[in-house]
Every structure is written in structure tokens, then in C-alpha cells.
Amino acid sequence: MLVKEIIEGYNESVSFTNQIGTFTVSPNRVKYTMLRNKYYLIAKEVYDNYVSEWGRYQSCNAFRNLSDRKMQRVFEEKMEEVKNDLISVGIFDVDTKSLMGYADQSGYLAEYQMAYDAFEQKVEQVNGNLQYEKAKREYRKENRARWVGGSISSRPNYVDEYLHQAELGMRNMAEGAGHSIVNAVGNAMSTSNANRQLNQLFTNQGVRDMLNESVLQSVWNLHFVLMDFLLDKLNICAWDFPRKEEIEKAERMLGNIGSSVLTDEERKHIILESFELNPYSDQLYKAMFDYFTDDVDNISELAEYFGCDINGEKEKKAYAFLMENIGTTEEEAKSAKESLLEYYKKVGLYEYENLPSYQHIMSTLEKFDIEYRTVDGVLIDTREDADIAKEELPDIQAFMGTIKQPTKEDTLKYEEELKAKRAEFEEKFHSKLRDKYLAVIDKYLLDFDKLFCTISLFKKGTRKEAAQAKAVNFLKKQDTSTKEKREEALRLLGEYLPEIGITEAEATDAMEYLKKKEYEEYYGKESSFSKISKGLGSLFKK
Where are the alpha helices (DSSP H) in 133-184? Predict the structure, then answer.
């Protein structure tokens, strides 16, 4: 909508009625509201894009190299809207360049300039260059003297105010109020430390918020440029906007609305008078919502008309409502969710999926659901399957109680029996718990193989090699001192060998062991032959 359409199309007052009373808006205030809302939407679009692009910058230097230049182009692009508005009412002798110059000299872009200069100054402080672009800063300082602007919801006019909020923001930044900047920088530091400090500065949320808000404010200020030119060129001053003293009076009145000595009728009077003074105050609609919640639809309509958003207040109350009703059980949480959905309808919150209150109740219900579907540490897909698993769990635990972990003494018989147990388990149980315990059995089988193939502390071999060693160890545990006892040991070995997976012909080391024991019986452990061999060995060593 062009400004010509606003000036020519809104020449009647507008009224809103709710339980508080009737709110009447004069034609000139209607015109200003339309203009104000138009440029707020433009500013909000730029703000949203600016905020979303923080993640695109990989470093502080990347942000510095691109962001400021981009914002200058954005200001020029949005100034085109001002130019088109002026052209629509017959002002043809302006262009974007002249409008930008006027906006800069008049201080309408100063909030962004000051915020970005503050950021750059800290960067240069970190880099040790305290003389950064003094001339540019002095130039901007001189030209900020006429800037007036104001906040989107509460600045009174555009002709006699300096950048109070930006001054406060600069002071806060310099003094460290609300930010962690000053303590994070220094004049003398190493390159690595400087990079760390720059990263801290760049990622500091206070710094980002300051720049974000300055972008929103400065783009919104473009409608003041339009109003200045309309007044100067055509003497058009069809705008009824709140003055400073009106805003301050309304703030004082609304600040007292919570007094316990006030009646509802007195609160209505305060709200109605505050509306006449400044209908663009978020504080006003918060007070309406706090004390007259039953008429929230009409209050929301009025707030929306004047570009104010009370959804944040609605959400605060919704969250508090939820916390009072959420309870401690799943059934109580389900009931709280239904109550919350009804509350959303009551207060006019129709897009609630991303609200903290809704996400909290859904997260709570999800936790209850996960708790229900978790059986013996296993998350089951559905509650129905979880019920089956819960029924099977005692039998599964009893079955697993019949299975022992493998030891180094276990033979292939253990493996055979365990495989049979596994097959029986797999056939008997069907819930998702089955996979958990099959994994336990499979681990036992793997552990058995490792233990079986361990020949010594530092030596592992094939199953055949391990079996040969086990056969020898088996015989070593037997009494082989006489022929009869060796024959008995050999018989026992014959029974043992199938359990370790080799034949007597393959148990060569065991057979050699028995021959050795037979030899020792007849010749003794230290035979003359062995003594001679040892003596010769000693001689050759010498």
C-alpha cells in the first residue's frame, strides 16, 4: 500500500469494543497506524533475514567483510519504498541517493551505525589498533546530533529526540552491563589469544542482540524520512502519533495498574486513558490481558491492529497454567494436555506446536511413553509389543539362569550344549527382548572360542593346536607312574579327546608325553644317557 492510498483512503475513525469499553481511533491516528505497520513489516523482514544469516558467517572476519556492506545495500533497497511513496503523492525530485544522505545526516540510521561502530571498535581494540578510523567515527558523531527516531513501540516523535536507547546500549556495552564484552578484550595479547577473543566477541549473544535490534530499529526509522519529506515538500502532517510526555504518562499509569487498592472499574479507566495516550504500547495490552482474560479475542484484535503482539504474554500464562496442572503421572499429564489445548483456544493461541508449553507437555508424555515401552533396558516399538515383552521377561530370566559363562576348562561339549540352548531360546521366545539375550549367548560362544584357543598366557592357536595342548595338560593331571596307570590315563584320554575335537592320532604331543613317562619309569628321570648328553652340552658351551 502506497502512502497516497493511506492518506486518501483512511479518513474515518475506527472503533473497537470489548468488556473494558470502547476504543476509538481518530482518522489521523488510523493513517499513522497504517504507515507505521507498513514499515514495521518491512523492518521485520530485514530483521528476520539478518538474524537467520548469523550462521552463514564462519568467523568474525567473515562477518566484518560481508555484513556491513550488505546492510548498506539493504538500506538502499528499502529506501526505494520511501522513494515510491513520495512519487505516489507527486514528489519527483528525490532519488535513493539523496534520501540515503538525508537519513544518514538526520541520524535515522544511527542506531545501526552506532551498534556496528561499537562492534568494530571492540574488534580493533582486540587487534591493538586504538586509532581505528577516527575520522569516520568523528564524522558520524557530528551527524548524529539531529537523530531522533525511537523505539518501535514507544518513541514519541521524530523531531526533537536523540538516540537515547542507542546511547544506553553503547554505555551498557562499554561498561559491561548485560554483556561480557569488555572483560573479554585487551590491548596486548598474542595472535592466538586475539583470535579467541574475537570469536568470543562474534558469538556473544548480547552483541548479536544489539546488532539485530539496531537493524530492526534503523529500517523502521525509514518511515520518519518519508514523514519529513511529506511535511517539507507538501506540508502534509496527517499523522497523529504519541508525544514523549504522553508516552511517559501512560507508562506511569500502567505501572500502577497492579495496585491492590484499585477496582476493576478504575483499571478500565486507566487502560482507556492509556490507550488514548499511546495505543502502541505492549505494556497496555499486557495489562488488558492480565486483568480481562475472558475477552482475549477482542483484546488480541485491538493489539494486532496497532502492531503489538501479546502472544508472548499468552504463552507465559499458558506455561504457568500447564505447570499447575501437569501432575506426576501419565494420566495426569494426558489430562493436562487436553486442558492446555482448551486454554490455547480460550486465549487465542492457534499455532501452538512450537510453543514452549506445548513442547514441554509433549516431551513429558514422550518420556512416559518411552518409560512404558522400555522393558529390561530395551526400547520396544509399540506398547502392545512392550506388553508381550513384559509377559516373557520372567521366563527369559529363568531360562538364562540355566546358562553359565564359559571358562577355560570348558570343552566343545559346552559349545554344543550352548548352541542347542540358543536354538531352543530362539524358538521359545518372540518379543524384542529375544535379540538382547541372543546377543548375550552369542557373546558366550565367542568368549568360549577365545578361551578354548588360548594355549598359554601369551600364546593362542588354532582349535587343533589348542586341543593338542589340552590333551597334554589332561595327561599331566593323571597319575602315569606305572604301566597300569598309564593305560588308565590313555583310556580316559580317549574319552576326553572327542570333547576337544581331535583323534588319538592327532594327539601326537600327548602320546609323546606318555612315552616319556614310560621311559622315565624304566630308566629314571636322569638316565645315564641323559647325564652324558648334559655333560657334553656343558663341555661344548665352555
Answer: 134-143, 164-175
